[in-house]
Design a protein that fits this description.
Helix content is about 25%, strand content about 15%. With about 140 residues, it is α+β, with helices and mostly antiparallel strands. It has a single domain (about 5-130), classed as Glutaredoxin. The strands form 2 sheets. The chain has a 4-stranded mixed sheet with strand order 2-1-3-4, with helices on both faces. A two-stranded antiparallel sheet has the order 5-6. Strand 3 (about 95-100) and strand 4 (about 100-105) form a beta hairpin. The longest helix has 12 residues, at about 10-25.
């Protein structure tokens, strides 16, 4: 029941995702990717397994995205990966890896699709939005 989260503790979505994992009774492996960025091949694999393009895995907000000219659609995946390696803040988060797959969990509730265990009780995001009811079921 191994679960790994590529986490940024300064990010609300990342904190909510981690809390949902823990609400399922799972203590994941936490990789603070700004301190320990994934190697290039590992990053490529995460992106591929999540069903994303490299461009979809780049974070724009709060990063040097614009200053680096990464909105240039002629840039190749390898050039984008170069930028992500040089500036890990460009890696969107959080990526979560479980035996059921890999997801970029934005919004945080996407993690529910790949958790190997059900939710154990009620859960609300930091902003108060209810996600899981008292019976451990997803609020629709």
């Amino acid at each position: 029941m191994a679960v790994t989260i590529y986490h940024n503790p300064s990010c609300g979505t990342s904190r909510n995702t981690l809390a949902l994992i823990r609400n399922a009774g799972i203590e994941p492996t936490i990789i603070e990717y700004l301190k320990s960025p994934p190697a290039r091949q590992e990053l490529k694999d995460l992106i591929r397994r999540a069903g994303l393009t490299v461009r979809e895995a780049i974070r724009e907000k709060g990063t040097p995205f614009a200053e680096l000219g990464l909105d240039d659609m002629s840039l190749t995946d390898e050039q984008l990966l170069d930028a992500m390696e040089a500036h890990p803040i460009l890696i969107n988060r959080p990526f979560v890896v479980t035996e059921k797959g890999v997801r970029l969990t934005r919004p945080s509730e996407l993690v529910l699709d790949i958790l190997p265990e059900p939710q154990k009780g009620a859960f609300a995001k930091e902003d108060g939005e209810a996600v899981i009811d008292a019976k451990g079921k997803r609020v629709v």
